[in-house]
Design a protein that fits this description.
- There is one protein chain.
- The protein is α/β, with parallel strands linked by helices and 545 residues long.
- The chain folds into 2 domains: 2-334, Alpha-Beta Barrel (TIM Barrel), CATH 3.20.20.80; 362-404 and 441-542, Alpha-glucuronidase, C-terminal domain (Alpha-d-glucuronidase, C-terminal Domain, Alpha-Beta Complex), CATH 3.90.1330.10.
- It is built from 17 helices and 10 strands.
- The strands form 2 sheets. An 8-stranded parallel beta barrel has the order 1-2-3-4-5-6-7-8.
- Helix 2 links the parallel strand 2 and strand 3.
- The two termini are 34 Å apart.
- The relative contact order is 0.09.
- The protein binds beta-D-glucopyranuronic acid (BDP).
- Beta-D-glucopyranuronic acid (BDP) binds at residues 13-14, 55-56, 133, 172, 211-212, 239.
Length: 545
């Protein structure tokens, strides 16, 4: 399924491809041709469910005025086998009137939801169900009334069960605990609830424990809730992957997570097999992608981002497909059939995610992006509305080293995983470099498996990352004769923007962390011509309203 983060006024939360496809003020009378094209595109890759509105949900969608609009879209999508879902605002009974609060145990609230659900199903008999973000980032939820996530989900499940609808309840929650580790919060809330959710409830878990970073270890809830069907949530829109100016092919990211072994039920209990229901015998299964579509003529802003929409659909039905095969299918249908060009572009796509990781957050560094500009660096961010929205909370740089100690000596987030996974990531000597700083505070002088010290390897990644963007530009230039001129020029321009942004990441991060390592830039590289203060100023100006 796709999860649209579209708002009623046409903006899209973390959307980088124009405004919403849904023209709420014109619906239900005007049916835009793009609704039909969108449905065809989804159907072609097996996407059979869409949540129309943002998880930070407006209660408006549950009104009679909006239900007819939702029905109009459902009618368009039905012939393509696509069901419509809505994100709910948990406080709707109070916000829309009819109940004095939204306590899920209050009979008047329970009735309120039953009535709304009835209204929806009388308009849309095959309505899919509800998606809920509750008690997360300021959204209302059952905990406001001393109830649990399961109490909230089960109330909705009861209202929708007579129609065979489902409730998808998100596990993206993290209480603000200045002494805690955000990594562990969702697990703490949800693991104890395993076995208490109604049979038509899925719990939807983001691929990683923090928030759609360019690389995350798999979320520790996968494998930890055998009695609950867990849906995967990936983010197609490139919130932390360079918005619409960076070419990042996400299939390798999706696959890295899906193929991770949780060992929850012995070897081979991969995340994919948790999600497809085969490990714990669930027949209700789902994989959600936060949509990257919008009103831009090419749908996704960066044309190459269409490949992420495509790859998501393909992997949702067959997670054993290779990233290479999916890329090649997409290139041949979208860009060119010329064999040499196909291979060149495929290679560039396959390497693009690792390149992005290298020039932004190498070796397992995470969450050092700008507070408002998630496509740019702000590793010096020390203060925010919450400590776990800063950068220093995550990178923990000091004179000794870098990285978040999540071993038993630290937050022990590692303890949430099976012992086999702990063995894989728990020892800084053997922890794979891509995950190193996720779990360890490593000294700047520590010699890594690459043969270099942490500081030298870390700094080199930024420099090599920028060089790799130059390589991508060269590769793209080499296929010019095989590509439609307009598309060629557009992608070239975006690669140039990506290069400019990569230089910002490199200079900001090496200069900032150098203050702690107190070591020179490795001799083979040129010292940045800009100062740290200049980089801070660039980022500050970027973030002005
Ligand atoms: C974060 C986004 C925020 C979303 C939130 C979510 O920055 O805009 O509302 O995730 O998934 O990545 O609920």
């Amino acid at each position: 399924m796709l999860n649209h983060w579209d708002n009623p006024l046409g903006t899209i939360e973390r959307g980088y491809a124009g405004s919403s496809l849904w023209k709420w003020y014109e619906l239900p009378e005007v049916i835009d041709q793009r609704y039909i094209d969108y449905a065809r595109a989804n159907a072609s890759i097996g996407i059979n469910a869409v949540v129309l509105n943002n998880v930070n949900a407006s209660a408006r969608f549950l009104t009679k005025e909006y239900i007819v609009k939702v029905k109009a879209l459902a009618d368009v999508f039905r012939p393509y086998g696509i069901k419509v879902f809505l994100s709910l605002n948990f406080a709707a009974p109070k916000l829309l009137g009819g109940a004095k609060n939204s306590d899920p145990m209050a009979p008047e609230v329970r009735n309120w939801w039953k009535n709304v659900t009835k209204d929806i199903y009388s308009a849309i008999p095959d309505f899919g169900g509800y998606l809920v973000k509750a008690n997360s980032e300021g959204e209302p939820g059952p905990q406001d009334f001393g109830r649990t996530h399961a109490d909230g989900a089960n109330m909705l499940a009861e209202a929708i069960a007579p129609y065979k609808g489902i409730v998808i309840w998100r596990a993206f929650v993290y209480a603000a605990d200045p002494k805690g580790d955000r990594f562990k919060e969702a697990y703490k809330d949800f693991k104890p609830l395993d076995g208490t959710f109604a049979s038509n409830v899925l719990v939807q878990v983001k691929n990683g424990p923090i928030d759609f970073q360019s690389r995350e270890p798999f979320h520790p809830l996968f494998g930890a809730m055998p009695k609950t069907p867990l849906a995967m949530e990936f983010q197609l829109t490139q919130e932390y992957l360079g918005f619409s100016t960076n070419l990042v092919y996400e299939a390798p990211l999706f696959k890295e997570c899906l193929e991770s072994d949780t060992y929850s039920n012995g070897k081979g209990s991969t995340v994919a097999k948790i999600v497809d229901g085969s490990v714990d015998n669930h027949s209700l299964t789902a994989m959600a992608g936060v949509a990257n579509t919008g009103s831009d003529r090419n749908w996704t802003g960066h044309l190459m981002s269409q490949a992420n929409w495509y790859a998501f659909g393909r992997l949702a039905w067959n997670h054993s497909l290779s990233s290479e095969q999916i890329a090649s299918e997409w290139i041949k249908m979208t860009l060119t059939q010329e064999p040499k060009a196909v291979t060149t572009i495929q290679d560039l796509m396959i390497k693009s995610r690792e390149i992005y990781v290298d020039f932004t957050t190498p070796l397992g560094l995470h969450h050092v992006m700008g507070q408002n500009i998630h496509f740019g660096p702000e590793p010096w961010l020390e203060k925010s509305a919450r400590p776990d929205w800063t950068a220093i909370y995550y990178h923990r740089a000091d004179s000794v080293g870098l990285g978040f100690d999540r071993t038993a000596q630290g937050s022990n987030a590692l303890g949430l995983y099976s012992k086999e996974v702990q063995a894989l990531w728990g020892n800084p000597e053997t922890c794979p470099l891509p995950y190193l700083l996720w779990f360890h505070h490593v000294s700047w002088n520590k010699k890594l498996s690459s043969g270099k010290t942490l500081w030298n390897e870390f700094a080199s990644r930024y420099y090599e990352g920028v060089k790799s963007v130059e390589w991508m530009q060269k590769q793209w230039n080499s296929v010019q004769s095989s590509i439609d001129p307009q598309i060629f020029a557009d992608v070239s321009g975006r690669l140039a923007a990506q290069h400019r942004e990569a230089l910002n990441w490199r200079d900001a991060c090496v200069l900032y962390f150098q203050q702690y390592s107190k070591q020179p830039i490795p001799t083979q590289y040129q010292v940045p011509t800009r100062t740290l203060d200049e980089m801070k100023e660039i980022v500050r100006i970027y973030q002005l309203k």
